[in-house]
Structure formats: C-alpha cells, structure tokens
Amino acid sequence: MLAHLPAMPPAPLFFAQLLVGLINGAFYAMLSLGLAVIFGLLNIINFTHGAQYMLGAFCAWFLLTRFGIGYWPALVIAPIAVGIVGVAIERLFLRRIARLDHLYGLLLTFGLALAIEGIFRQEYGSSGLPYSIPPELEGATNLGFMFLPIYRAWVIAISALVCGATWFVIERTRLGATLRAATENPALVRAFGIDVPRLVTLTYGAGAGLAAFAGVLAAPIYQVSPLMGSGIITVVFAVVVIGGMGSILGAIISGFALGLIEGLTKVFYPEASNTVIFVIMVIVLLIKPAGLFGRAS
Amino acid sequence: MKTRIPAACAALAAALLLAVGAQAQIKKDAVKIGVLADMSSLYADLGGPGSVVAANMAVKDFGGKVNGKKIEVVSADHQNKPDVGASIARQWFDRDGVDMITDLTTSSVALAVQEVAREKNKVLMITGAASSDLTGKNCAPTSIHYAYDTTALANGTGAAVVKAGGKTWFFITADYAFGHALQKDTAAVVTANGGKVLGSVNVPLNTADFSSYLLQAQASKAQIIGLANAGGDTINSIKQAAEFGIVKGGQKLAGLLLFVTDVHSLGLKTAQGLNLTESFYWDQDAKTRAWSKRFFAIAKKEPTMTQAGVYSAVMHYLQAVKATNSVNGPKVVAYLRGRPINDFMIRHGHLQADGSLVHDMYLYEVKKPSESKDPWDLYNLVATIPGAQAFKRPRGNECPLVKG
Lengths: 297, 404
Prior knowledge:
- Chain A has helices spanning 11-42, 49-67, 71-92, 102-124, 150-172, 174-184, 186-191, 196-218, 228-243, 248-268, 276-287; strands at residues 140-142, 147-149.
- Chain A has eleven helices and two strands.
- By secondary structure, chain A is mostly helical.
- Residues 16-23 of chain B have low confidence and may be disordered.
C-alpha cells in the first residue's frame, strides 16, 4: 500500500487541496457549532443533529419542487421550519428526560435520528435527489492554481460569518450571558424572573436551525439524500470531542482545522482519509481528555 | 480376495450414489430463496428492497409452488460488511434452510458469501456485485455471476471510450474489491486498445466529497477520468466534477458502472452524454417494457439490471429445481449449465464452467434533456455487445475450475 504514496504534489495542487479542505472544514465547523451550543448550554448529546441537517436539505428540495421557492428564501425558511421541529422534539421528548443521565438523551436522540432517516429512506430511496446551484453562484473562477467553484467560495464565506456571529452572541452578548448562567445555575436565573425552560427550548430549536442551515448549504454540492446526515454526524462528533465538548470556539477552530488535515490526507494517503479524524480524536483524548479547548470538569 | 476389494468398492460407491440421489429429493417443506442486499445504504436503490420486489414477483409468476413445495423469499441487510453478509448466509444455510441466495450487491460481501456457499455447496445467483474475481481466481462451483461483471463493463464503456479517442486515463477508484477489479479490468482494456493509464486514487467507500480526488484527476491532465465506483459514490463524483469545470476544461468522465437509478438521481442536465454499459434497460423493447411496467406498479421506480436480474435468476433457478426435482446445489447448477438461458432480461445467455453467465450487454449514451420524454426516459442505445465479446477477459481466466 505504501507504494501508493505520492511524492509531494506540485505547489498549485497543494494549495487547491488546502482550499478544498477548508470548504469541508466549513461544514464541520457549522455542524459541530450547533452540537456544541446544544451540549454546552443544555447538556444534551444531540445525535439527531445529522437528521436535522438532512431535514434542512430536504426542506430546501421540497420548497423548490413543490412550491417553486428557490435557494435564497430556503436559506431562511428551512432553518426556521427545522427549528420548529426541534422545538417540538425538545418539548415532547427531551424535556421529560432532562433530569436523567446524559446517556438517556444520547439514546433518545440517536433513536429519533434513526427513525427520521428510516422514514425518508423508505420514501425517497438512497440515491438522493438533485438540487441545483442557484444561478447567481454558478460557474467558477480561475485562481491560477485552481478552478474555484463560486458556490464553494460562498460556503466558506457564509459559514465563517455564521460561526463568528454565533460565537459573538453566546460569548459577548447579554442573551448569551443569560444562557450560560442558566446552564450553570438554573434556579438562580429563574429567581431573576427569566423563563429558563423556554430559553432551553429556544436554544435547542436554534441548534437544530443551524444544522438545517448547513443542510441547505450542502444541498447543491451533495445529493439531497436521506443518508447525508448519518455520513457526516460521526465525523462531526469527533470534531466536537477534539475541540472540547461544549466549547463554541473549540468547535469552530477544530472544524476548520480538521477539514484541512483531512484534505491533506486525501493527497498524501487517500485510503486513510476517512479515518484520520478518528485517529486524531484518540490521540487528543489520550493527551487532553477534555478536548483542545475544553475545560476539565 | 483380490477380486472382492474392487467389488466392495463398487458396492460402496453405488450405495453412496444412491444416498446422494436420495438426498437430492426436495425433502423439506419449502424451497427458500434469500435476497441478501444493501437495504439501507448507498447501494440500496440499485438492488435492496427492489430486489425483494423482483424475487417475490418471480415466485408469484411461478405459481408460488415448485413440485408441490411452497416457495418462500427471505431477505436481509448485509450493510456492505463482508462479515455481516457471511454470517447471515451461514445462518440461512445452516438453520433456516435457505437454498439459494441472490442480489449480493457489493463485491467484498459477495466474495465472502461465496466462500460460505462453496463450503455448503449452495447456489448463489449474484446479480448485484461486479468483481470479475467472483468467476476468476475466487470462482466457486455452485456460484453464478448472473447480470454483469467488471470485465463486461470494461469491454463496453472502457473500449468505447478509448476507440472514441480517449487515450490517457486517470482512475478514481472505490477502495475495495469491486473498485480494484473494475480499475484492473478497465486498465487492461485501455492498454490493449493503445491507451495509457496515467494514475489513480483509491477513495474510501461511501465518500461524500470527491473534490480533492477530482482535483488530483484534473492535475493529471488525463483525457479521461474513469470512475471505478458505484451508486452514491458515482453520483457525487459526477455532480461535483461538473462543479469544478472538469468537463468544460476538456477532460471527459467515464462512469464505468452506472445504474439507471444513478442517472435518474443525477438528472439529465448533469449526466447527459455519458457512456455506460448495462445488461438491461427498462425501455429496450416490448418485453422489457412489459415486465418493467409490472415492477414499476409495485416499486414506484424503474428496475435496475440488478433487480431485473434477480427476477430472471429466481425464475431460472425455480425451473431448474422443478426439472431436477432437487435443491442440491451442484445438480441445479449442472442443469442450468446444460441449456441456453433466454428471457426478457438475459439475451443469448450461456452459463460457463467458471460461473459467469455470458450474455449480450449494451452500450448506452445518456440522453440530452431535450430528447427525454419522461423522468425515466434516459438512454439511447449505442451498440449491442455480443456476450462472447463482452465477457472476454483480456488476460485469460485464473479460475481453477477452467483448465488452461
């Protein structure tokens, strides 16, 4: 197998690969961000996240094929719709087990994800459905060292923006401070007259909405497929573990960084490209069990 | 004394023969057919639940009974894992009395199950997996490779593309038995026709993002990018190649294994102009249309060659069981080998000693959106490839069952 190892690729190809890694990193960052928000603020290990990402993409597809509503409105409508589904999940299911061990939440959300994906697979098969790139973002520009599809550039830009905005809201605003306080000491926050259960519900809904937003962004690149969530969710969990469970900044930075590392693996030893992230996860857990940006509890 | 020993041997042999003969009667309550497939992942659309539909159609059309015994269909999901597939097959043969297993999408799984079948002398009728090693170096006496294989794909699409001027190739290959076999067989055809392979990259099965591999292919400057993958992997490669302007840049894609469900999923805008090789297309002629219409009524989609293959395989298996009044693996396979196989799906079929079913294959081109009349109107026929040409191995056969 080592005979397959290519020599150092020419510089242009190398930069191109870095850029491609960054694009995948953008998806990892956005998905792990939602997971980190939900875990950090609600202590729920949300395995339904992949299904919510898939629902976002399907929502965009529905809007287009059933109602003729295009990509741009879908970027707003789909996260709201899936956010509402998230609110329903939190109210109907998660609330009932909030006082129990994390494991119950994990099992419940895992089961929900399997059920949602199973229903969609039954209905739409495994091949996926086509969703085109919006006309405004079609085409590509020649950067000299690579042919960069405009849509991919847009994905990097918008996800960096969304990641930054989410970090700002949670770490730097009054709302974020309240949220963090509600996690630390819900009884005290309630004493200030703040409706903590509602806050929790809305936060879960927002996390689900973030997943759906990533799903809409992914729809034109990958097929809109019932399987798209389960494929990416294991990687994203590894990203969150590496970044530090619940650390917003950790999720963002490790998302982008691991995208880059994975991209480089695809050049130097492609066979290992779907394992490299898990190898890193193992190493990080051994050296720094709380994750790179996590606080040991 | 000396004369008695041969006589005793003869008597013993006769007794054994009788015992085999007696065993050959269908002694059980039912004849069982197992559909072992990817029911839930990237290959589920090309075989999977649709194969179960096809198997049940065949059983119903056969009348539900063979020589007075009920026919049952069981199915399971092998999850594309060879160990899972092999253990299900073992349990089916040992405990559940399954007589024949079909579909078997995913070559790595089919190769593992074939070892179990070899040990138990049970019949496999493989319509999903592609690797030519199933009838090459890993061939087994009771295993039939029914619908198509990587040799036929290489002789179809590979040869057509080289002859049309695609001399230099770069492969994007699914990193398991199937991808390796497809690359190896296609590379042999490419070189035999005067082409050259510039490089390849092995990609893990079930990958979502192919952009990195596509960039490597682009940088190789090869005229043709050969996609030695299948199902969801092929769909994502083709879709993303369009995004990176690969075709606009002058390179061409060769989808070495494309199913009608893949093309349907991609849409004609992205897939138009691709060459592909299949053993069955629903809209080929009156016979294929008639059968496919019935399939569509149940499955709500047009059948793939794997699914049509399951129907055809089950039908012929049941006919052999009926004629031999036996579910004994070697006996059934010997019967099938003795006569031509022909129906709506298999044309000019003839079962070889190595287990490959040699039959006509077809080279198609994906239609332009303007040529298509409905969502499943996808192919134009380019050429019919006679079986002898389609299944001819460029480097001979390593199967120990065929001498020379």
